[in-house]
Design a protein that fits this description.
about 140 residues, alpha+beta, Arc Repressor Mutant, Alpha-Beta Plaits, 4-stranded antiparallel β-sheet, 4 helices, binds nickel (II) ion
């Protein structure tokens, strides 16, 4: 862990009031931890915009009875096998499936995989979460 450094921040009072309200709602107990998380979020976004090696999760909801849909979902995943770490398939009910695809690779490739899965006809919902390998964050 790197050395802890204190620094002063000057803010307009109104902005600080809004910040305190926001972090209270998000259950932070102090400003420092809220600020650290915001900085880390921005650094992770930067990793994604700079096409760094990142991690992420893609979720899909679809009806497995829809003709050819499962094959299409599988074909796309096999095309991107190098950046898929694992896939979890949950049968929600008689029709609906929930799939979680955990990825690691170049951000552009993961975004491409997400777009291809999302745009398959009859996929009911596709979700996406950017994450990081964590190696460049403290
Ligand atoms: Ni299923």
């Amino acid at each position: 862990m790197s050395k802890l450094i204190r620094f002063g921040v000057s803010l307009e009072e109104d902005l600080l009031i809004k910040f305190d309200r926001l972090i209270r709602k998000k259950k932070y107990t102090n400003r420092s931890e809220a600020l650290r998380d915001m900085i880390r979020d921005e650094l992770v976004k930067k990793e994604w915009t700079e096409n760094k090696e990142v991690t992420g999760a893609i979720t899909l909801v679809y009806d497995h009875h829809t003709r050819e849909l499962v094959n299409k979902v599988l074909d796309v995943q096999h095309d991107y096998h190098a950046c898929i770490l694992s896939t979890q398939h949950i049968h929600l009910d008689h029709h609906n499936c929930f799939e979680i695809i955990v990825t690691k690779g170049k951000s552009k490739e993961i975004e491409e995989l997400y777009q291809k899965l999302k745009s398959i006809k009859s996929v009911k919902h596709a979700g996406f979460m950017m994450a990081t390998k964590g190696t460049d964050l403290s």
